[in-house]
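#lab-general

N.A. 3:47 PM
ok so I finally got the sequence cleaned up, no stray characters, all 192 residues accounted for. can someone with queue access submit it? mine expired

B.Y. 3:52 PM
send it over

N.A. 3:53 PM
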Amino acid sequence: MGSGTFTFVSLLERFRGGDPEAAGNIYAEYGGVIRAAVRRHLPDRLRKEYDSLDFAQDVWASFCRLAGGSYHFATPEELGGFLARVARNKVIDVCRRRFETQAFNVRREHPLTRRDGADIPVSGREPTPSKWAMAAERWTAIAAQLPPQHLVVVARLREGFTQQEVAELTGITDRTVRRIVERVREICEDEL
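B.Y. 4:20 PM
back already:
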C-alpha cells in the first residue's frame, strides 16, 4: 500500500473526497481482511447459503456510509481491525437471525425424504437451461415452416398479446389469427 502513515492518511483523505482510485486501493488492500474475518466467523451450516463476498459487499457499503463520519484511523492496522470487526458483526447478526428466530431458524430445516429415507428431489418452476435450448431449437424448426407474415403474428402472441390485440396490431381479422394459431398447432403435432 505504500510506506508510512502519511501515505495512509492521504489515501483516506482522497477516499473521503470521492476519489475512485483511492477507493479501489482501499478495496484491494483490505478485501482479504474482510473475507478472512467472515470465513473465520461464519458457521459451516450457513456456508451453503451465504458467500463471504455477500458479507464483504455489506461491509464496504457500511464503511462507505461511515467513512466520512466520526471514525478516524491513524494507521492501516486500525482500519483493518475496524473492517474485521464490522465483518464479524455482520456475520453475528445473520447468525442470530438464522439460529435464534423462529421464522428463519436453520435448525428447523429438514430435508424432504421418502418413507425409505431417500431424499426427494426438488426442482424449481423455472425451466432448466437445457429445456430453454430445446425450446429454442423447436421454435426455430416451427418458424422455418411458417411464411413471414405468420411469424409476425406468432411473435406477438409469444410476447403475451391476446389474439384480438394481435389482430388489431397487424390489421388482420381475428379469424385469420385463429387460423395461423391452428397452423402452428398442426406443425407441433406433426413433429411429435
